[in-house]
Amino acid sequence: MPQPEYPGHYLVKRITTGGTFRFRNRLLYLANAMVDQQIGLEQTEDGVWSIWFYTVLLATFDEVLTGPHGRVDPHRPRCANAVPIDLPAGTTEIETFE
Predict the structure, then answer these.
(1) 32 φ, ψ to 5°?
(2) What is the distance between the alpha carbons of residues 64 and 62, in angstroms, rounded to a whole number?
(3) What are phi and psi of 65, to 5 degrees?
(4) What is the pLDDT of residue 67?
């Protein structure tokens, strides 16, 4: 699968082996299923960001409410200093396709 291309105003990040990505000196957890994939971050409001994978909106987060060290949601895999991210309304998990 070719790497996604995002609009020029997006921040492009690669997901680590721990399912995380770095954002402004923070380690944010997205999903282990996204390892080694590129995501696009789009600022939608002051401090509110949308996370895109190709044309699919995966999640949003508020950088003001996401603390510098964060917390790990106990229902998700643990990664040191990772912060869970809110999924879009009505979504309970990120689907992956093989």
Answers:
(1) -65, -30
(2) 5
(3) -85, -10
(4) 55
Cβ atoms 6, 40 nearer than 8 A: yes
81 vs 72: CA distance, rounded Å: 8
Q: What are the pLDDT tens digits along the chain (98 aa)? A: 789 999 999 999 999 999 999 988 888 888 899 999 999 999 998 888 889 999 998 888 888 776 554 433 333 334 444 555 655 555 555 444 44
Nearest Cα to 62, choosing from 78, 92, 41? 41
* All residues at 6 or more sequence positions from 50 whose CB lies less than 8 Å from its CB, including other chains: 41, 42, 44, 57, 59, 60
Tally: H helices and E strands in the chain? 0, 7
- CA 76 to chain CA mean position, Å: 14
**Calpha distance 15→53 (Å, rounded):** 11
What is the pTM for the complete model shown? 0.68
